[in-house]
Amino acid sequence: LPSVIVNRRLAALMWPGVDAVGRAFTMRDNAGTREVRVVGVAPDLTYEEFGEETPQSHLNVYVPYIRAGWRSQALLISAAGNIEPASLASPVRPAIRAVDPGFAIYDVMTMDARRTFNHWSDQFIGRTFTTFAIAAVLLACVGAYGIAAYGVQQQRHEIALRMAIGAGRGRIMRQFLTAGTTLAIAGIGVGLPFALIAAGLLQSTLFRVSVWQPGPWIVLPIALVAAIIAASYLPARRASLIDPIAVLKDG
Questions:
Q1: Strand-pair partners of 40
Q2: What DSSP assignment string belongs to 4-51?
């Protein structure tokens, strides 16, 4: 019978608790249906790109290249010590041609370059979402600053009167910081349901990452509130530095 190697997960599924080596089974591939014999068990590996993983893709059968010549081959070379991986291409080429002069060598690159090439679209989408998220936070901070500054300008006389009858500068500052905090919490309360809906829609685009991890849902709202409070600090400080006598004289 033709010899094949299976991975550990497939061996455990088909022959639980017993040695898979020497077992025979029927497999179907592009060459048709045939019976094969297991001669080895290999570790479980992940071959799929993001979003392509399925329960069946974890079950692997390795067949001799001579029986599946239509497939391409990949030679992986590990660089030991401080050797630059890209520098290994030059000595490897003649070694391969010494074995088979007609063997076509192409797509020579490091594993980091291969990973970047394979996942450039995912990285682009991730960077795009990150850019929009940062822009949204900056816009929220600018909006909070503008609302707080406008409130200080509109309430100059009220602030001056309160300070004239004994309100301290710290109390005035706390008033506007509290207003900024209330604005931030209200904004999160309105936006959080929409964020939950968007997270559910994005779950299918993520690879082995859950959008329901509690960390981001706790840290990010706190960070947003802190950013908006920081944006409200300058208008609040300006309000606390108002000279009540000068404001009241100006009428």
A1: 5
A2: EEEEHHHHHHHSTTS--TT-EEEEEETTEEEEEEEEEEE-------TT
Residue 21 binned pLDDT confidence (cut-offs 50, 70, 90) = very high
Q: Apex CA 139: angle with CA 134 and CA 145, to 5°?
A: 130
What are the helix and strand counts (H, E) for the chain? 8, 4
In single-letter form, the type of residue at position 22 comes to: G
245: pLDDT strictly greater than 90: no
CB atoms within 10 A of CB 16: 8
* Alpha-carbon torsion (196, 198, 203, 207), positive or negative: negative
Rounded to 5 degrees, what are φ and ψ at 150? -65, -40
Q: What is the DSSP letter of 53?
A: -
What's the CA gap between 87 and 99, in Å, rounded? 21
Tokens linked to 175: 């008033």
Using an 8 Å Cβ cutoff, are 10 and 27 in contact? Answer: no
Sheet of strand 24-29, all strands in order from the earlier edge strand to the far edge: 24-29, 32-42, 3-7, 61-62
pLDDT tens, position by position, 132-146: 988 988 888 888 888
pLDDT tens-digit profile of 69-127? 566 778 888 887 777 877 888 888 898 889 888 888 888 888 888 888 877 887 888 89
What pLDDT does residue 51 have?
A: 62
